[in-house]
């Protein structure tokens, strides 16, 4: 199984879709770390979105002015298409910033639900063999064989021959980022269960086996 990232729940495997349903209990053997949508985190994202939107609009304006104000001869040597790159980058940044701003009201409502005691299904799920990360925008399913560890609170994994990463959110309900990192490390060290059997995941390493009895003399 390869890494899967999608914003459409219908494209997720059935065993992952059930994790996102707040009306269903979590399957046995699942460790869940719930992301907290705090006011500070939401406001920070909104400010980043506003900055991306403004910078994207500036690049788009520069690209359009450059495109229509340039009146020199266009040849393969003189035309670098720089204005087109400005327009494309401006559009991408602008759309990204707009998406971050547009998600603020719903994120604020979700944070209020969490403060009222509701359990939401946004965060990190650790199952035998796979790690599932559900953010506000999409869900990523990472098989254990594609996981490449944590570096400076960034989760790294291989996808289609490339190493990718994303930074974990700083706030979690009922746990800390250090506890989550320890749990992910313990999950990555667990052997695969024969026959797909589930094992309860924990941030605490399993105890060492008892010492073997002394061998009979002469063996």
Secondary-structure map:
Elements: E1 4-6, H1 14-20, E2 31-35, H2 39-69, H3 82-102, H4 104-115, E3 123-127, E4 130-134, E5 139-143, E6 147-151, E7 154-159, E8 162-167, E9 172-173, H5 177-189
Antiparallel strand pairs: 1-5, 2-3, 2-9, 3-4, 4-5, 6-7, 7-8
Summary keywords:
5 helices, 2 domains, 38% helix, 19% strand, 3-stranded antiparallel sheet, 219 residues, alpha+beta, PH-domain like
Can you describe this structure in just a few lines?
By secondary structure, the chain is of the alpha+beta class. Helix content is 38%, strand content 19%.
Would you mind describing this structure in some detail?
The chain is 38% helix and 19% strand. By secondary structure, it is of the alpha+beta class. The protein folds into two domains: 4-36 and 122-196, PH-domain like; 39-107. The strands form two sheets. A six-stranded antiparallel beta sheet has the order 1-5-4-3-2-9, with helices on both faces. Strands 6-7-8 form a three-stranded antiparallel beta sheet, with helices on one face. β6 (147-151) and β7 form a beta hairpin. α2 runs antiparallel to α3 and α2 (39-69) packs antiparallel against α4 (104-115). The chain is globular.
Structural class by sheet pairing and helices: alpha+beta
How many angstroms does the end-to-end distance come to? 47 Å
Number of domains: 2
- The largest beta-sheet arranges its strands as 1-5-4-3-2-9
CATH architecture of the largest domain: Roll
Mean pLDDT: 80
Q: What is the helix content?
A: 25-40%
Rounded Rg:
24 Å
